[in-house]
Amino acid sequence: CAHGSDLADMHEKLIPTLEVLFSGSYDDEYTVFDHATDIQELVTRLPGGYNYPLLTFNAFATDEGNKNDFPSIIIGDGYFEFQQSMGLGSEGPEYALTHEHAHHLQFSLGVKDNDSSQNTKRQELMADAFSAYFLTHISGGDMTVEQLSNIHSVAYSVGDCEISNDARHHGTPQQRKCATMWGASVAGSRDAANIDLIELKNRFDTWYGRGLDDLCEHSNSAAPFTSYHMICSLQVFAALFGSANMFGF
User: Fold this and answer.
1) How far apart are CA 145 and CA 83, in angstroms?
2) 61 near 104, Cβ under 8 Å?
3) What is the per-residue pLDDT across 195-231, written as a single tens digit (0 to 9) for each?
4) Which of 49, 89, 189, 216 is the most exposed place for a label (fewest CB within 10 A)?
5) How many CA atoms lie within 13 A of 164 on its CB side?
6) Do residues 198 and 160 lie in contact, with contact meaning Cβ atoms separated by under 8 Å?
7) Cα(92)–Cα(66) distance, rounded to whole angstroms?
8) Which residues contact 170 (CB under 8 A, 6 or more apart)?
9) What is the DSSP string of 9-42?
10) pTM of the prediction?
């Protein structure tokens, strides 16, 4: 789990992280120490300082980049706080963990993000579908109808409100919810016991290839109007602080 307080540890956590993220970007005029100092000064001006939820409002999976890396799933404290505030504190963590685990399944399948907006969106919606499939399946989460309704709401809550062709766009709230509904429906089908990972991916690709506009036209009919505007307002607020891809589950 990622904590905002990690940013307070300059030498053991913040500087090593910056050196990985911005390797080769520093010189004598602007060192990694200068960068770390600027970040810490900015954080101290935020409401709550290092406990400010938007600092850790994200979740992601990492693959083995080199022999020194290990596959991981990292979920920030801010994500849990947000889901708790939405009344989704139970299903929110389960969605995040299974969604990020689905990315590891994609790594094993060779499904990679090639910086194309459509490929990124496909990858994220596929992870949503895999997550809902597992949480619905009798041999997986075996969730109730009410729990699955909350899962759909969680997926909706992390959608990207802005409509663009940005390579980082992970799907609108409506599309994220739509993908979880599809995954749940497949897990509840008659032949669910005979579907392996390859077959599930192939079925998703066929579904996705039919076009999201028509497939997801009615999927947000039950989404509260206020939820959509709260989510989008929060994303705008995050963007004002320069938090690129903060909602990039």
Assistant:
1) 19
2) yes
3) 999 999 999 999 999 988 777 866 554 444 446 555 5
4) 189
5) 9
6) no
7) 31
8) 120, 121, 124, 125, 158, 159, 160, 176, 247, 248, 249
9) -IIIIIHHHHHHHTTT---SSS-HHHHHHHHHHH
10) 0.77
